[in-house]
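Researcher: Please predict.
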Amino acid sequence: MIILGTNSIKDTGYNVANSCRFNDGSTDSLSRSNGSSPSSQRLFTFSGWYKRSTLNPGSAINQQFFALYNDNEDRMDFRFQTGDTIDFRNNAPRCRITTNRLFRDVSAWYHVVLRIDTTQSTASNRIRLYINGVQETSFSSADYGDQNDDLITNASTMEIGDDSYSNAQYDGYMSEVVYCDGQSLAPTSFGEFDEDSGIWKPKDVSGLTFGTNGYYLDFEDSSALGNDAAGSNNFTVNNLTAIDQSTDTCTNNFATMNPLDNFFPGHTFSEGNLKIVTSSDETYNTSTIGVSSGKWYFEVEWDATSSGTSVVGIVDSPSGAVGASLHKQAQGWGYRDGGDVKNNDSAVSGSWSSYTTGDIIGIALDLDNNRLFFSKNGAFQNSGDPTTSTGAITITAPSSLPNGNYFFAIGDYSNGTTTLLANFGSPSFAISSGNTDGDGFGNFEYAVPSGYFALCTKNLAEYG
């Protein structure tokens, strides 16, 4: 999957430093009690940037942006709904909108703005929804309520990333989450179209007025991810830890593993699509970003708690049939834990160490010269040096591939389950040393070879 649109600007002007990674399997959320009466029960605006990890067609799980709650009848919900629409509802008094459009891109950031003003005489102006700066007008359900309805913004509890039932956990990344109490604001208060590309991008919101129960969550304090950067309406952190602070943001989008490339659905994705538990049948999964030029670096940790087998590398196409492991692909190169590298199921000559659980495999991919390098715990194999091309594996030029791109890929090649932790530069696991690329992006366990870069959109715009 090639990322376009919102995620492709090199210089955004205003840069967002952090997001928060929510994992639904850990019931991650933020919560707070509203101790004061709101500035208004008729006007408010909610804004946030979201990068999804899990899609849910046919499931019974909603993924919550926020919820306000007094009891089962007196509540408000705003979420990605089952089936991947966006849904807002207020129970008492009743109002609700549900989009016809589906939101199923797990590689991109969406900017979502909910604008409420029940004083409007025109019904459709009482609830307005904007995605990436453009108003949504097509709804499968559209009940805008009555003029001057008092909505339940005086609810006792507000949740971010969950509903009051604790069964609608958000799964993915959130950034720049803003609630303005007592104001109905256009999306231009939170973002703008880039004058060169026309792409919607965030802008500094620190100068806004947030109101009595308003807040601004910038997620820049890893020790207090619920901190209100605009005031004192801080949230209690539930199950989130410092490692859930991410540099994958709406101004620099990092690659993750792609849950849509999951031929064998027994593979499970979690931790922002950076942790994969494979099934007992050999297959592989690919990255959300494919590349055709430039030099890129990627790490994978074979989790110490797993068993089975491990293979990491690159490939030109998504996974296929069960049994078609990464190293069996015509344009797939896989470094296997047993201590060999294979392409098209044939051994690649060279000297390769075996590796085991707890080890970290690095991949340096040079698409300017069509070369590939593997490292184990920082030591490049086959006496390799990516900066001089010593010990390189020669690969097919991207221009000769059917789709013109390579993807990073991980998987297994025999029976047994395997847990693999991908790191494109914004890891979901603790890094003991911390290394960036030459432009200061990424957080890797081992040194990034000179001239190689983390796979993120700022680097893509510069080197891809």
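Model: The first helix runs from residue 457 to 463.
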